[in-house]
User: Fold this.
Amino acid sequence: MITTTELKKFHNLINGDQTPASTGDMLDNMDPSTGEVWAKVPRSTIEDVETVVASARIAFPSWAALSSIERAQYMRRIGDLLAKHGDELSALETKGNGWVIRETSYGLIPALEQIWYDAAGAASEGSEGETIQMGQSSFGYTVREPLGVVLGITPWNAPLFTFTIKAAYALVAGNTVIIKPSEHATASSLRYGELLAEILPPGVLSVISGLGSEIGDALVSHPEINKVSLTGSGTTAKAIAKTIASNPKPLIFELGGKSPNIVFADADLDKAVEGITASIFTGNAGQLCVGGSRILIQRSIFEEMITRIKEKMLNPAITRLGDPMNPESTMGPIANFAQYEKVCSYIELGVEEGAEIVFGGRHGGDVLLSGQSQLSNGYWVEPTLLKVNSNSLRICQEEIFGPVATVMPFDTEEEAVAIANDTSFGLGAGVWTNDLSRAHHMIRKITAGNVWVNTYGRVGPGLPFGGFKESGYGTDSILEYTHKKACVIELG
Ligand code: NAP
Assistant:
């Protein structure tokens, strides 16, 4: 087990080697449960960007020249490797961003394994083409080719998952990949890269750590980077789009959300309570892009549902804030100080906007975990439900990204759809109903990349995952990491 007394150092992965930043400078990574530094990671420079891109570019032709079957074999070996190193990786993920170990070990690592195996199974898709007869003596055909060097930029809330979903499909398609993890939770990605380098040839996969504000522009605008896939905020997406405006390249943007979770009176209410609470409170302390942060409940069951949600979240057997490394804890802290301040300020704003606190609202380790002095400076926020009368409040329109949800009533299906779609985002939506026709109507009428009925947040290999509107565009999938070339042959 890792303890805060050990200060661990991690390095970039460049050309298959563990590489410090060229200046030797390092950044602090904080343990969000204690507010203490627990790891040091490289503060890379523009010089390091040049080195990492050059090694990825050099590795590209040989990797692209492998058959899809050969690349699939690498993907399977990585999947197998995860089984051996799952405990170590889940512990690093938990230490770095506070996502409780019971979820990173039992849920996350198996999901990563599945992604690598799914990429292996999809390998041939990346080399399939069509033949088109063009006349008596000529025909056309299409070939798919890898793009070159792909840059994957990942967020702090789910570093290993977003690393994997980008790297696996881009690699199996024949690209080389550079991952730039968040400055806030970097260590798990650096160690992951080190493990993957045991299997992949040098330069095929690289990981570079540093501040987005210092190396982000140099990476995304680099002429030898052929595609950028960002999972992050709309603010960063806009900055990237601006940076590459004069030298455009393809982008995938997987951004934020303000997802509705809609409960009709005919639903199985036990299941709905389960789905609502897991999606925004206990699941990674609400720091999930698809978090069901706007709860909409049909008026006839509004008070009953609020009582049930409250009883569940106030039950100490369910809501156990505590050391995220302890398997008994069901909720960890907010992953970094800046985000902690943001979440707290939104709770204050909600009260100013006239929202009623149904439960929660408090924050700070000294307040919430007073019996555990080592956690008193951590970034703790308790699950908070805010009752609102209008969806136009800022707390209903802006992504909070923490264990904070709004709840409001609706009367009809049409009203539920109108409120659900009254947002600039379009990432996810939950619908709880036992009426099959209603379920299908809601699916068609909701503008979001993912709609779940009588479940919430399920993603899986084979299903596209992406957003509409300001939640982004594109999905991390094998075809998006290839281009399609048209070829015509005249037989004469
Ligand atoms: P963020 O602030 O946008 O950062 C994301 C990544 O972009 C980090 O690695 C960051 O590096 C880097 N970055 C910052 N400025 C950059 C620039 N100018 N050029 C290139 N890279 C730059 O997002 P976050 O706060 O880490 O993550 C939370 C957000 O991610 C939320 O909005 C959440 O909804 C979204 N998210 C979406 C999905 C999805 O699949 N749709 C999944 C998870 C999270 P630094 O950390 O060094 O600044």
Q: What stands out?
A: Residues 116 and 168 are 6 Å apart (CA to CA). The mean pLDDT is 96. Residues 153-158, 180-184, 211-213, 216-217, 220, 231-233, 236, 239-240, 254-257, 289, 399, 401, 427, 467, 472 surround NAP (CB under 6 Å). The two ends are 71 Å apart (CA to CA).
